[in-house]
Amino acid sequence: MTYFLPHLEPVTEEFTFVRAKPADIVEGFMRFERQARVKSRWKVTKFEAANLASAISRIDRSKRSQTEYLLVPTNSEWTALFELHGGWKGGDINSTPERISFFTPADAIGLGMARDTERAHRSDPKVKLQYGSIRFDFVRNGEVIRHVQAMNSGSGGRWEFHTFGEPLPKENLSNYSKRKIADRFTFDNIVELLSSQFGIQLLDESFYKPQLGCILVNQV
After folding, report:
1. Is the dihedral of CA 136, 139, 142, 145 positive or negative?
2. Percent of the chain predicted with pLDDT > 70
3. Is 139 exposed, middle or buried (0-12, 13-18, 19+ CB in 10 A)?
4. Which stretches in the chain have pLDDT values below 50?
């Protein structure tokens, strides 16, 4: 697995950013829980931390912890949301950004990336098989309005490129015509898009401001 910030794995396998304050996101999350058919008990803990690594260390990665959400303020209007399920499984880009966006309500961004190991796995079965993907979703009021993804389809190394919705003003559309599909949307592309379009400095740990007050929501 490839992570956006490898030394902080596994929670950095996927990212969600929400254009709202942490407390407002928690309120939205609780609105969702109140209408859910299956009720769960949640503990909300507010704390401050010196840096991002220290904040993430507050997440319980043991198997006893079922689901956890960590909300970290940033040096912008966006809050970073880190998610874990069952202690070690990462977030859910297929549902979390849309759910949070709808119930907060607020704009949300979902990011996901996985390293492609299909060719290495064919050469050496001991290498864990994983199909490569780089994905960006921009969500408004619970609806995905822009989606870009380059991914290994799992069909003998065949890559696919998918887009949905109107391009964002700062997207590098010239990339999308490259012959090699895996090069049409890359790690560098997603970092640049976040910076130029949204002011999110994904890889700059000083961009995250846990000293301003984090919130940890965990299932008990």
Report:
1. negative
2. 87
3. buried
4. 1, 87-88
